[in-house]
Design a protein that fits this description.
Layout: H1 7-11, H2 16-28, H3 32-58, H4 66-96, H5 101-114, H6 116-126, H7 130-161, H8 167-178, H9 182-192, H10 194-209, H11 211-229, H12 244-258, H13 263-286, H14 290-296, H15 299-325
Helix pairs in contact: 2-13, 3-6, 3-12, 3-13, 4-5, 4-8, 4-10, 4-15, 5-6, 5-7, 5-15, 6-7, 6-11, 7-8, 7-9, 7-15, 8-9, 8-10, 8-15, 9-10, 11-12
Length: 327
Amino acid sequence: MLLGSSPWLQQHGLSALTIAIALAMLVGNTAYVHLAPTAAPGVAFSKRVLLRAGIVLYGLRLTLHDLGHVGVAGVLTDTLVLGSTFTLAWVLGTRWLGLDRRTAILIGAGSSVCGAAAVMATEPVVRARPEQLTVAVATVVVFGTIAVFLYPALFALNLHCHVIGDGARGFGVYAGSTIHEVAQVVAAARSSAPEAADTAVITKMVRVMMLAPLLVGLSAYLSRTDCASAGQADPAFRRISVPWFAVAFLGVIIVNSFVALPPAVLTLNNQLDTMILATAMAALGLTTHVGAIRAAGMRPLILALTLFAWLVVGGAGINHAVAAMFR
């Protein structure tokens, strides 16, 4: 967390979560082998309980009032970008690249919603292996970091070609609806135009809010398909597993929207939540071996690259079309 507060690292979109998993992977592939017997119960607790608790507390960063700041156009843009990106990940990942469904879903969630946090929130729903989770986190971190350097150049280009309308505000909606991590959105928007930063962050927060319904819908779909594959043909007897933490996450957002919590409480929550999520990321990194990532090959990277290209180009097209509709 101290490293994550470094101005230089913040400018390059590297948050405490990214640093935590990088450092933990370094330890996990060196000294951790001697500590694993003692540390394993705490690491498992962090990957399960702390991960879910961190996602729930993340809801205190958001309110339903954020919807009003971006308007119907912003919400529609976020919805179309998220839906198209996640669908592409699923279809291209499983049918074109031959990836297993869990890896494709994790990369799709990270690319379409909010980077590493979305990957971690989706893991309990798909029950992924540690190496699948780490591969997904690594890919979204790589291309999200590239976006921090790319988007300021795209802003300068847009001043001449005007693909994204409404000046800095319009570009802020574009950045918030297409860049992976919240920290990366802030870094890219501030580097593009300071006046674009607020709109970019609000648009991104609205996109993050869509994580809860995505998880609930994904859980329901996977429950139905898993039951069907097991031979339970009658939908009435299919048990739909709704992730409690996704519902709690949405509930916390609603409470935070109507109950005015003191700023000191919100600041403390943000610090605590960052610590909890960083701990969960560290636990993930400790149990991931480089050999497992290497065994995954180039296919996850190709999928993430394809999704990144779609976010940049297709996202610009979606932003342009929606802006034209509400002009």
